[in-house]
Amino acid sequence: INLEMLSYQDVEAMKTLFGVDREGDQGQLTEHSSPSEFEAVAKTGEELRHESGQIWSPDEVSTDPLASQDSYDGRPEPSYDIKLLQNLSAEDTYFGLSGKDLSSRSCDSLLITIAVPDECVESIDLDLRPNRLLLRSPKYKLFLHLPHTVNDAKGDAAFVNGVLRVVLPVVHDE
After folding, report:
1. Element at 124 (helix H, strand E)
2. pTM of this prediction exceeds 0.90
3. What is the DSSP secondary structure assignment for residue 91, as one 8-state letter?
4. Contact, 78 vs 142, CB < 8 A?
5. Where do the structural domains in the chain lie, given as residue ranges?
C-alpha cells in the first residue's frame, strides 16, 4: 500500500474496517495496561491432569510390565549392593595403554550382591534381562534397574550363606 496516495475516504474506510468509527473509540486504542491489571490463574498439577483426561501421572506408570506386577506385594526388598568391575592388566595399571579410566563406562562387569537371609537357593527365582534384575523368594522381592546394559545369557550367580552374588558382563555400545 502506498500511503502517500491514500485519500480521506480511504482512511475513513480503514477506520470503519478496523472498528474505529467514533471519536470515543480512539481513546480505547491508546490506553495502556500493566501486568498487575491481569489476574493470573495458576492451576495445580491435579487440576491439569483432570482437564487432560489422564488417570495416572507419568511417574506412576512403568514401561516394564514386570515392574508393576505385584506392585502391592508386601514382601520387603532385600539389601543389595552394585559394584563395577574392570579387568586390568599390568599394562593398564602402569602404562595406561588400553584407554580405560575410572569412569563407569570403562567397567567390564557388574557385581550385584543381594542379602537374602533365611532363604535357601531352591526358593529363589532370579529373572535377568539386559536392563533389569528381578528376584523373588517367599520372603523378599527385588526389582532392580541396572545402570548398564548387560549380557544376561553370560552371567554367573553363586549363593553362599544367604548371600546371592551375580556377575553380569557389560555390553558396550562400540
Report:
1. none
2. no
3. I
4. yes
5. 65-169
Q: Quick one: DSSP state of residue 38?
A: S
Do β-strands 109-115 and 79-85 pair in parallel, antiparallel, or remain unpaired?
Answer: antiparallel
Per residue of the chain (174 residues), give pLDDT as tens. 566 677 888 888 888 888 765 555 554 555 666 666 666 667 676 666 666 666 666 666 656 655 555 566 788 999 999 998 887 777 777 776 677 776 777 788 999 999 999 999 999 999 999 999 999 999 999 999 999 999 999 999 999 999 999 999 999 876
What is the rounded CA–CA span in Å between residue 106 and residue 99?
Answer: 9
110 and 147 Cβ atoms separated by less than 8 Å: yes
Query: What CATH number does the domain located at 65-169 have?
Result: 2.60.40.790
